[in-house]
Amino acid sequence: MVFNKIVYDKSETELTVCSFEILAFFLGNSKVCYKDLDCFTKDAPFTNSFGTLPESPDELQIKLLLFTRNHKAVGQAVVYNDPQSVQQSGYDSTKPLKVLIHGYMSQGDADWVINMKDALLQKGDFNVMTVDWRIGAHKIYNQATANTRLVGAVIARMLNVLKDDFGCDTNSIHIIGHSLGAQTAGYIVAFNELACSHQRAYYYFTESILDACKFTAVPCTSDKDYAAGHRFTKNRTTILDRTSVVSQIVSF
To answer: Is the separation of the CB atoms in 107 and 134 below 8 Å?
Structure first.
């Protein structure tokens, strides 16, 4: 139960209430279970959504689309409990898999997702899977946060099918998430966060995929040393090109 507004009729004053989400922690179910996926509780460490539990797969209608160089423009739908959908998708287990997950108030055909998918397919002969959980992402923030747990479970099941039934090499899986998509990725496997501008992150990452644009960096002990020009440049230059790194999660 979540209250967003309280209206006092006498004064015709509208009071916006921002903190009543915590009531959900004490009200409603303490656990939900969804067939073939998992059971979800309010227990620690899942306390970042004020006791809100994930909505059902039927409500969220999560869509996974597979793109390859043979299907660049139109993705082929794949379903974790339908191996035949994978067989018909053009998935090739000998090629690396890139998984793109959008974030809060976004969708699987967002500009950054399409641009990054296209850049990846231009860069290499990959399988690129986009995850569209727009219904669950366009909810009040604590509900969207809770929904990432179910999205993560769906992706994990899909990856297990690719591994067990189709011989996918898990070392070739590269998961890329932005905003709550990064949190979703964290429910699949442990991940390392990149410290960068949140809203510009996917632009920088997409540009780093292509050979024409590289971002170089040198280590420095502090902002003060950087401003003074004291940088450690000898044999310490780094080039950002994330396509050379596999079996990792990148979060924005």
So the answer is: yes
